[in-house]
Design brief:
The protein is mostly beta strands and 422 residues long. The chain has six helices and 26 strands. 9% of the residues lie in helices and 41% in strands. The protein is rod-shaped and about 115 Å long.
Length: 422
């Protein structure tokens, strides 16, 4: 374990394996798989965002508490770099020396639904970068310090501005580093800019290597409540090396592959469930107060109606449609044995948290055979077992004609559809 030196930034605890590892001479293709899932959480109905399920490595795997705010996920990428020629002291051009060019700005890519081909937009950026510097000569020898001088002190003398833990340019300090006479490891936060983080060498360096790269990223995903259930995939490509998206300059050249692929898989598991109370599938239409006023006092009913409650669980967009055994214009109908048919108006009131495409609440919204007016309903948050109402009514204009038929029973089947395929 590399211990911190008094008066210095705290050492990178647990970094022995990090500092001691050497990147393999040949590395596999650098496909990094990023996964996230949205599944409604009844315990947190207002938390409508993807949960990152990526198997991470490197800095944030070793020090997760330091990658929470802002959230950061990191990968250990086995791409090493090595100088092609010695680094001269006080070199005039930053690309001759030790540097990291980092794509810190947000970049957009499309993810595609594997079943429907519909696309959504994701944003990603490199938000952290780190590595381990390796020298074939003890750093004390490079800077002319006596044997036994603190490695942190000698590495700090090697660079203008001191140790890399201090940060430079758009790369900002996290306060963590680790060192021995031959190696120095660090990890830095990256601002939201594409920039170069470079330090000038104050002494000649015959040879320097980067053992690997620790790359941290941040992700912005679409609003999952606006996405269809299913799996979305897409890839972001970063070129590595001189002139690439990620570069260590013109002197330090990559060993191995020269591209990093971030392969995204976003999984959306929506819930759309309707619970109807026992017996609720059979709707009996009656006048206000029942039939007694007509039977006992001869008062004709003005309308026949019934309100039927239901409970909804919804995290996805949906539309509503009607299917009818008997039809009257753009709505359903009921009829008697003599085939006398009257229209049956059906309306819906949805629970709080569900709105239409314009953001308006849904109260007494007519349901029609062609779906007009109910083409899109969407949640503003996860609606869990909230009550809505279906309103069934024979309009007053049709009740009069029913009464002329005498004692007669009317029936008909109406199917109300909640369809998540919007």
């Amino acid at each position: 374990m590399i211990a911190p030196e008094q008066g210095k930034s705290r050492a990178w605890l647990g970094a022995l394996a990090l500092l001691g590892m050497l990147a393999p001479a040949t590395a596999p293709a650098h496909d990094l798989n990023i996964t996230a899932i949205f599944k409604p959480d009844p315990a947190n109905p207002l938390k409508n965002e993807f949960r990152n399920t990526t198997q991470q490595s490197g800095y944030c795997d070793q020090l997760p508490a330091y990658c929470v705010n802002p959230p950061l996920v990191s990968f250990r990428v086995p791409i090493g770099f090595v100088t092609s020629e010695p680094i001269p002291a006080h070199h005039p051009w930053e690309f001759q020396g030790v540097m990291l060019q980092v794509p810190g700005q947000w970049r957009r890519l499309q993810v595609t639904h594997t079943a429907t081909g519909k696309t959504e937009e994701v944003e990603v950026r490199v938000a952290g970068i780190g590595t381990v510097h390796e020298s074939d000569i003890p750093v004390q020898t490079l800077v002319g310090d006596p044997v036994g001088t603190s490695s942190y002190t000698s590495w700090g003398k090697l660079w203008e501005g001191g140790n890399w833990v201090n940060g430079v340019g758009p790369c900002k300090s996290t306060g963590y580093h680790g060192a021995s006479s031959w190696i120095y490891g660090f990890f830095l936060r990256v601002e939201e800019v594409d920039g170069v983080c470079a330090k000038k060498a104050l002494f000649d360096i015959p040879l320097l290597r980067y053992a690997f790269l620790d790359v941290g990223y941040q992700l912005r995903t679409p609003r999952p409540l606006d996405m269809a259930t299913g799996v979305y995939v897409g890839t972001m490509h970063y070129n590595v090396g001189p002139g690439g998206d990620i570069s260590a300059g013109n002197n330090l050249l990559p060993r191995g592959d020269n591209q990093i692929n971030l392969n995204f898989t976003l999984t959306v598991e929506h819930e759309l469930k309707i619970d109807v109370p026992p017996g609720g599938h059979r709707v009996v239409l009656e006048p206000q107060g029942g039939w007694q006023a007509w039977l006992q006092h001869g008062r004709k009913p003005v309308r026949l109606f019934r309100d039927q409650t239901f409970n909804m669980h919804a995290s996805s967009r949906f539309k509503m449609l009607l299917e009818c055994e008997f039809q009257s214009g753009n709505t359903c109908a009921i009829e008697n044995s003599a085939t006398h048919r009257v229209p049956l108006d059906i309306r819906v009131t949805l629970p709080s948290g569900l709105v239409d495409g314009a953001g308006a609440v849904v109260a007494q919204r007519p349901l029609r055979l062609d779906g007009a007016g109910t083409e899109l309903f969407q949640p503003t948050f996860y609606v869990e077992r909230q009550a809505g109402t279906l309103h069934f009514e024979v309009p007053s204009s049709a009740v009069e004609s029913m009464l002329t038929q005498g004692a007669s029973a009317y029936r008909g089947q109406a199917t109300v559809i909640w369809d998540s395929e919007v």
